[in-house]
Structures are given as structure tokens and as C-alpha cells.
Amino acid sequence: FEKSPVERSQSLSLVTMVPLLDIERKLIDNLNNYAKALEQKLQIIRSQIAVMRAENEKGRRDPISYLSNPLNGFSLIRRLHQDWFKWRKYLEQPVGISQMRNLALWQGELPTKLDLWDACTGIIRIQSTYNIGTSDFINGKLDGKQYNASMSSADIFAVGEHLSKENRSAKAVDWLQEMPHRLKKDLFPEHLAIKEVKVLKLLAEMHVNLKHFSKALILLDNCQQLKPHDAALLRLRLKTMDFIASQPKTILPENKQLKASIGKGYKVSCRGNSERSSRLHCFYNFTTTPFLRLAPLKTEQIGLDPYMVLYHEVLSKREMSLLMSRASRKMEVARIYNTNPKNKNKVRTAKGHWFSKENDELTRRIDRRIQDMTGFDLTDSEEFQVINYGIGGHYHTHSDYFDFASANYSGERNRQAIFLGDRIATVLFYLTDVEQGGATIFRNAGYSIYPRAGTAIFWFNLNTDGNGDPRTQHAACPVIVGSKWVMTEWIREWKQIFIRPCLPHATGTSSKLSRTKS
Ligand SMILES: O=C(O)CCC(=O)C(=O)O
Ligand SMILES: [Fe+2]
Q1: Closest approach atom of ligand 1 to CA 389
Q2: What is the C-alpha separation between 491 and 501, in angstroms, rounded?
Q3: Fewest 10 Å CB contacts: which of 193, 314, 332, 417?
Q4: For residue 348, which of 131, 183, 118, 31 has the smallest C-alpha distance?
Q5: What's the 184 CA to ligand 1 centre distance in angstroms?
Q6: How many Cα atoms occupy the beta-carbon half-sphere of 502 within 13 Å?
Q7: Which secondary-structure segment (H or E) carries 304?
Q8: pLDDT at position 429
Q9: Going by CA atoms, what residue is nearest to atom 8 of ligand 1?
């Protein structure tokens, strides 16, 4: 059954991308073998040319005397009757059949059209969330930090093309206009290179969409110089002229940049502008369960209303790496059988792995630790979900509690609700540090938390009266750089009936909300 109320970002998780590097190595080796086979063939041909040319020149120096020798005459006839026939056969023989077979064989392991679509979306999400200029982004300057990586013209064009297909013309122009001066520096062979005319034409189309007609015309003129007899270009030029003729008054001032949707709220919070109240403390929790007298928990208050704490160093390095390596073995590259990007919403859910608590000693031990952290009875609570995010991986704003009153909740979810209750609280473990981005933000509460390996956040999703607390809505900001792994534990309500009894809810009374804290 569906365990997560909201679909997470769709991109291939980072860990499922790791094997792609091996596939790429295999492909390069394969191409190298092909080149070797070609070289071998070339060598054979070249050496034979030398032999044949020597013989031919010997004959042409004095043809009559050469041919008067029957050995030479015979050989010429035989050569021209037999050898050239064999040469033809030899030249027709394809080079590197086995390498070509390999290529066909590995086709199924390569990312799909939809994977590329997801990756483009991830790139755009990072750019817009953190408000990164296109040229900075392309040159590897991400949110103020310079990395030793940059995008090739082919990479840039893929993003520009994606944006154009998504009808985001202004953004597409932003990307595509970075291309023309880069193309000249490319060392791609002819068939892999992106043609300048293709870039200029797409740019012109985007300008037409934006009603920047004179810019479009200049680009189209450049295109026509490169490809004077192209019918599609001519048609586009005529269309542009028609536009100009038919809507002279609607032309926008050309330099007026269409406002990029600089988002409020979510985006701003992801850029890390929240402040913490000075009334908050760090302390050792000795009291939630008797065990904590022996091993108190390092606790940091994030907020009192809604109540939220961080528990530091609750997982060891070994536990985290075991969880991640076990999950990555089970996490499949989520393949899409329907590769039509239009159907993107129907496919692929989170790239995670669910661990049964009864799995082994590791999961049982972590389960006991969560009991110590929360004081809750976890018998009916959910399995652990381990998640790894991909390029620009994020999770839209959502609440972990279910809105049972809404019409969406029927069938299996309703049954769970009846038997287990709602998700009264969440424990979210971070299994890795994240170099940049990837914060968990609670916009309504004004909290943002940056991932730190071994730390867990704990919060109540429900008010004391059992209703969902909308202030606990949260989102995972896009990861800029790093591999973000988290593990969630959703604690169900009914089993806590005597631990956190139902009380009328009064806002602003943090003491009630923090009943299970020390
Ligand atoms: O990854 C995060 O920071 C948040 C994850 C989350 O909200 C969830 O799994 O429900
Ligand atoms: Fe969540």
C-alpha cells in the first residue's frame, strides 16, 4: 500500500546513478576496442597499399618491357581479376561487429528519456530554488561556491531544449544564449556536435514566443547565412514577419525580462533565512525512559510551539553505513516502462527502501532507541524508510499526518487509520551530511534544519486533540551538492492512547505538546 502521503521528487537517486559510471566505462572501453579494430584494419590496408603501389609503379615505368615478361603479365591479370574482388569483400566487412552487438546489448541499462527529463527538472529546480544565475550555474558556481565542474554545450542544449518543450521560453533563452560562443570551442566530432544553426533557430523560436521579434529576426538572418536554403528557416522567418505585421501594438519592450518566478516561501526558506528564538536550550535527556539514565541523549530544542527537538549522535557511523549499503542493494534503478515524459506523474515513486523492524538486530536496536527518544509504544508503527535523493532531489511541502477528513482517504488508508491511527509523530534521521542544500524546512513554524549525519529530528504531527497540526507541514529543499540519505519512522497514534492521552487542544501551550520530553 502507499505509505507516503505525497510523491517525492522523481529523479534517479544518487546511489542508483553510481552503476551508470561503470556502464559508461564499459561503453568507452567498447568504443576503444572498436577503434583498435579499425586501426588494425587500417594498418592492413596501408601496408598492402605500399606493396601494390610499388608493383604498379614498377610496371608503369616501362609498361612494355614489364608486361613482356609473362610472370608480370599473368600477375596483373590475376590481381585485377581476383584481388580487387577480395578487397571489395574486405572493405564491406563491418569493423567491430562484437562492439556493435555490445552497444545493442547495453541499451537497456542506459538512462531513459524520462530520466533525462527528471535530471533537467532537478537542475532547473536547484537553479530557481537557490536563485543561481545561469552563467554561474553552467560554470560550476553553485550558490556562491565554485566547484571544479562545468557544463558542456551538449549539456546546456539539453536543458535549453527541455525548457523549450516545457514552454518556458524566457528561461530557455537564458540557457540557450550561453551557447553560441561555447560551440566554437567544442571538440566534438561532426555527428556529435550540436549545430550552431540548430541552437540559433531554437533561440529564435523562443524569442518569437516572447514576442521579441527583432531579436528573432537577427538570429534567423544568422541562421540563413549558415543554411541559406532551409525551408523550415524560411517558414519561421515568414511567420515572424506575419507576427510583426499583425500585432504591432502588442510588442513588449524587448529588454523587459519576463520575471522569472522567483518563488516566495519554500524557495526563500530553502535559502536559509529562518531565525531561532533565543529561549531554546540544549540539554541531556535522562528521563524519557529509564535506559537514558545510563545513556542520556544530547538534545537540542528547535522550537517549543510546535515542539521539535534534534537528537544528536543517535546513530553510529557503522549503523548509518550499514543502513545505506543494505538499502542501496535493494534499491532498484526505478525503470520506466512508459517512456513518454508526458506521463511523468504516473510513474515511479520514492527511491527508497522499507526496512522491516524485525529484520535483524540492527533495526531492532534502532527501534529500541526510538522508544528511548520518544517514550512511545512502537508496536504498530511503520517500517523504517531509507531514502536517497538524486539530482536536485527534493520533497514537496507536505504533512506527514493524513487528512482523514478529506475525500482522498478511503480504502487501504482508511483501514490503516481505523486500526493504527494517524501518524502522531515523526522521527527523521539524517544518515549523511549534505555539502550544500537539502535542508528540511517547516515554513509555517519558521524552522529549517540542515542535515547532519547521525542526528534525528523529532516532532509531533498531531495536536493533543488528535487533529493534524498544519504548522508541522514541511519540505525537503533540493540538494545542491551532496548525497542526501534520510530514514523516517512514522509513529502511529492508537498505541499511544495512555502515553499521550487526548486533550482539548490549546495553541501556545508548549508544555502539553512536549509531554514526552524529559
Ligand atoms: O528528507 C527530508 O528532509 C524530509 C523527508 C520527509 O519529510 C519525509 O520523508 O516525510
Ligand atoms: Fe515528511
Answers
A1: 1
A2: 15
A3: 332
A4: 118
A5: 44
A6: 9
A7: strand 297-304
A8: 97
A9: 488
Residue keyed to cell 501518524: 423
What's the CA gap between 231 and 351, in Å, rounded? 46
Beta-bridge mates of residue 308: 303, 459
Could you list which residues have their CB under 5 Å from ion ligand 2?
Answer: 400
How far does the centroid of ligand 1 lie from the alpha carbon of residue 166, in Å? 28
Residues written for the chain: 518
The cell for 227 is 543554411
Is the ipTM beyond the 0.95 threshold?
yes
Instruction: Give residue 517 CA to ligand 2 midpoint distance, Å.
Output: 21
For the domain spanning 280-513, the CATH number is 2.60.120.620
Cβ(211)–Cβ(252) under 8 Å? yes
Which helix (H) or strand (E) element contains residue 425? strand 423-430
Q: Which CATH class is domain 132-250?
A: mainly alpha
- Please report, as a single letter, which amino acid is at residue 450: Y
3-state SS, residue 470: helix
Amino acid 406: pLDDT: 58
Domain ranges for the chain: 132-250, 280-513
Which single residue is written with the C-alpha cell 530554488? 129
Q: Do domains 132-250 and 280-513 have the same CATH topology?
A: no
Provide the grid cell at 337.
516502462
Indicate which atom in ligand 1 lies nearest the CA of residue 490.
10
> What angle separates helix 14-61 from helix 317-330, to the nearest 10 degrees?
60
What does the alpha-carbon distance between residue 288 and residue 373 come to, in Å, rounded to a whole number? 7
Alpha-carbon torsion 354, 355, 358, 359, what sign?
positive
Angle between the 169-176 and 196-209 helix axes, to the nearest 10 degrees?
150
Residues with CB under 6 A from ligand 1: 395, 400, 428, 440, 474, 476, 486, 488
pLDDT mean over 171-197? 84
**CA–CA distance, 478 with 480 (Å, rounded to integer):** 6
Condensed to tens digits (0 to 9), the pLDDT of residues 401-452 reads: 886 655 565 556 566 667 788 889 999 999 999 999 999 999 999 899 999 9
- Establish how many alpha carbons lie within 13 A of residue 276's alpha carbon, considering only the half-sphere containing its beta carbon: 15
Atom 2 of ligand 1, residue of closest alpha carbon = 476
Q: Would you say 328 and 13 are in contact if contact means Cβ atoms under 8 Å apart?
A: no
Would you state the cell numbers that stand for residue 287, as one nine-digit string? 528521563
Q: Is 163 helix (H, G, I), strand (E, B) or coil?
A: helix
Q: What are the grid coordinates assigned to 146, written together?
A: 565554485
Q: What atom of ligand 1 comes closest to residue 486's alpha carbon?
A: 1
